[in-house]
Amino acid sequence: MAYETILVEIEDGIAMLTLNRPAVLNALNDQVFSELAEAAAKIANDPSVRVIIITGGEKVFAAGADIGQMASATAVEVTISNRPSHRALQIIENMPQPVIAAIAGYALGGGCELTLVADVRIAADNAQFGLPEIKLGILPGAGGTQRLPRLIGAGRAKELIFSGDFIKAEEALRIGLVNKVVPADLLFSEAKKMAKRFADRGAVALRMAKSSVNEGLRMDLEAGLQYEHKCFSLLFATEDQKEGMKAFLEKRPAKFLGR
Ligand code: CO8
């Protein structure tokens, strides 16, 4: 399928999803969310893709949901039009492969919320984050009031949500909103370097590790530990586990086949 608002490139097992509405700073409308959902669902089922990078390109990640589309919406329309965004974010969050968000420039509102469904966030030193919805008389309704407190704690999340203020990349790093800040011109090479590091690991163990963390966060500790133990035990049925441990004992790099 040809997409109009996103670009999809797959190379060496790494899929790059790029938001592509530069004239409106990659504002996220229903079409973007629908195309993201479609592309992500396809990639999730593609065993040749080991890692996904989501970006908005070199200048901006995304300045939020499309205010033009939302401005005159009724509550009923929003209930319905919310579906593409929620569907897209849910699909991306549940992709079996690791997802890295590579963020340059503004990541605001729904743009910031999109970064929250990635597993890892790398920010360019020119990145700015914020949830300015409160200044529009709404709230961060694409997971911002739920995923952000789980990531950085309720106090810091509430400060961002209540003020609508923007924070710079270094502050985002300090509060744990991003994993890493890199010079802007190195953003994509650093994201690809990290993607390659993940891709070199055993694919089944990677998927199980992601599932163990994500599912565990939805459970209480006891249930999470049991889930982790099931994932751990299951990996002993893989060739990769045999190879990984054999390679260690033979003092050579492991060659994982993803099975
Ligand atoms: N929606 C639509 N258009 C936008 C958006 C947006 N979120 N952001 C920027 N644009 C457009 C501008 O209107 C402008 O268009 P034009 O050239 O035709 O006038 C163009 O992009 C460039 O923007 P600016 O001229 O404003 O650029 P500046 O560099 O001066 O300012 C800012 C950049 C600070 C990012 C500024 O554009 C801004 O404040 N944007 C809005 C940020 C915002 O409030 N985001 C939150 C939106 S609400 C939201 O995300 C809710 C998510 C939850 C709901 C999910 C369900 C759908």
Automatic annotation (TrEMBL):
Q: Name one Pfam family in it.
A: ECH_1
Q: What does the entry give for GO biological process?
A: fatty acid beta-oxidation
What lineage is on file?
Answer: Bacteria, Bacillati, Bacillota, Clostridia, Eubacteriales
Q: Which UniProt keywords apply?
A: Lyase
Task: Please name the source species.
Answer: Desulfosporosinus meridiei (strain ATCC BAA-275 / DSM 13257 / KCTC 12902 / NCIMB 13706 / S10)
Q: Which protein family is named in the record?
A: Belongs to the enoyl-CoA hydratase/isomerase family.
Q: PANTHER family of this UniProt entry?
A: ENOYL-COA HYDRATASE, MITOCHONDRIAL, ENOYL-COA HYDRATASE-RELATED
Protein name, UniProt field? short-chain-enoyl-CoA hydratase
EC number(s) reported in the record: 4.2.1.150
What does the record give as the reaction this protein catalyses? Answer: a short-chain (3S)-3-hydroxyacyl-CoA = a short-chain (2E)-enoyl-CoA + H2O
Gene Ontology terms for molecular function: 3-hydroxyacyl-CoA dehydratase activity
InterPro entries referenced in this protein's UniProt entry, alphabetically:
ClpP/crotonase-like_dom_sf (IPR029045), Enoyl-CoA_hyd/isom_CS (IPR018376), Enoyl-CoA_hydra/iso (IPR001753), Enoyl-CoA_hydra_C (IPR014748)
**Superkingdom per UniProt:** Bacteria
Q: In which pathway does it act?
A: Lipid metabolism; butanoate metabolism
Quaternary state and partners of this protein? Homotetramer.
